[in-house]
Amino acid sequence: MNSMMSNSKCKLSRYVRRAQILDVIRQRDRVSRKQLTELTDLTAPVVTRLTRELIEENVLEEVGTEKVKGNGRPEVWLGFSTSSRYIIGVDLGAYEIKAVVTNLAGETLHRVVRFTPTEASSPELAKTIRQTLGQLVQEAAVKPSELEGIAFCAGGRIDNAAGTVTSCIQPALAQIDLRKLAGEICPVSPVVISSSSSSRMLAEFTHARGASENDDILTVHCGYGIGLSSLAGHKVVVGFAPVPKLDFGHITFDPLGPNCRCGMTGCLETYASGWAIEGHARANPSAQLLDIVSGHVERITAREVCQAAALGDAVCRSILVRAGSVLGKCLSMFAQYYAPSRIVLAGGLASEDNDYYFQACVEALKQSMSPAWFAKFMIERSGLDKFAAASGATRLLWDDRVRGPLDSLVERIW
Ligand SMILES: [Zn+2]
């Protein structure tokens, strides 16, 4: 019994020590063995042994050397493997399914995009997701044995235990067991599911790393739905830090407002989301908008509304201005309470070719607070492309895997 206990203790401490090393590299991108002994409580022989093990397993690799003062041996830098171990990220968007393969260093190696079949049944949607994954794995020439995991992200509430997305924009998606589906591609890889906004947040943070490591960032995802994530202590918080379960898209803007897909009335999404813009435009389409969709009202989405606005359509411009303005008003309360240094608007509605929505949001923020408050933060568009959430999801999976043993240790202590 005693030897069994000491054996499991030994395994646990090895597991935790490896996690300590990986966590330092996760935060610094590259590090020397000497730095690892300084930044952890590990001795030099332990660092040497464990890093050798991790290199043999293709988790780490030597990424360069640097001369040291005097005649000492050059310092060897270690980083996450850029070949041999990969992660798949899939963003299950309302309009498109975007999938990426990244290496452990977070570099995207291959991308695939397919249209999300609208009004599709669950089996039809599952088939498209399966085809997207199959195409990605084939084109990237990734073997199942080389996969560290598959990370899905979607708008809606996530049930990681069941492997499903609930309360999502696409009812068909809620009935798909994503874990089982991913298991068909890669039976042994861990599968995680996260919200699009938290995945995107991590992508934003990774993108901004170095330039603004101490920034408190608030990211608003403005797409078909609306999501908000914040960054607290370098950990992504979905919703809002003090109330992590808050669903930003469904805070009430006007209780007497239109019906929302969540069952309530007057939520932020009923004014400022892609689906609300689509609904408003379909109910009262302008001649220019009808021209873009060749008279097919059912083909109008927020994308066509943005397109018509850019061509000078006054009706579409006013729809976007109203939507952006409501977002700014709702966001102002959070901005004053959370006091971020940066607010990032991401997603299709905040893209560069749609200035009306973004500018209306900035203007409403400005009008809703004192100039002193408004001057406290920077508001900007995301500099990332439409694959940001998919690559952020791979980052979330990897961070969770690296941090997992350390977090479980903290739980044991407390
Ligand atoms: Zn709602």
Structure explained in plain terms:
- The protein is α/β, with parallel strands linked by helices and 414 residues long.
- The chain folds into 3 domains: 17-81, Winged helix-like DNA-binding domain superfamily/Winged helix DNA-binding domain (Arc Repressor Mutant, subunit A); 86-189 and 394-409, Nucleotidyltransferase, domain 5, CATH 3.30.420; 211-383, ATPase, nucleotide binding domain (Nucleotidyltransferase, domain 5).
- It is 45% helix and 20% strand.
- The chain is built from 15 helices and 15 strands.
- The protein has helices at 2-28, 33-39, 44-56, 122-140, 171-174, 178-185, 196-208, 269-272, 274-283, 287-292, 302-310, 314-338, 355-367, 371-374, 388-413, and strands spanning 30-32, 60-66, 75-80, 86-92, 96-103, 108-115, 147-154, 157-159, 164-166, 191-195, 217-222, 226-232, 235-238, 342-346, 378-381.
- The strands form 4 sheets. The protein has a 5-stranded mixed β-sheet, sandwiched between helices. The protein has a 5-stranded mixed β-sheet with strand order 13-12-11-14-15, covered by helices on one side.
- Strand 4 and strand 5 (96-103) form a beta hairpin.
- The radius of gyration is 23 Å and the shape is globular.
- It binds zinc ion.
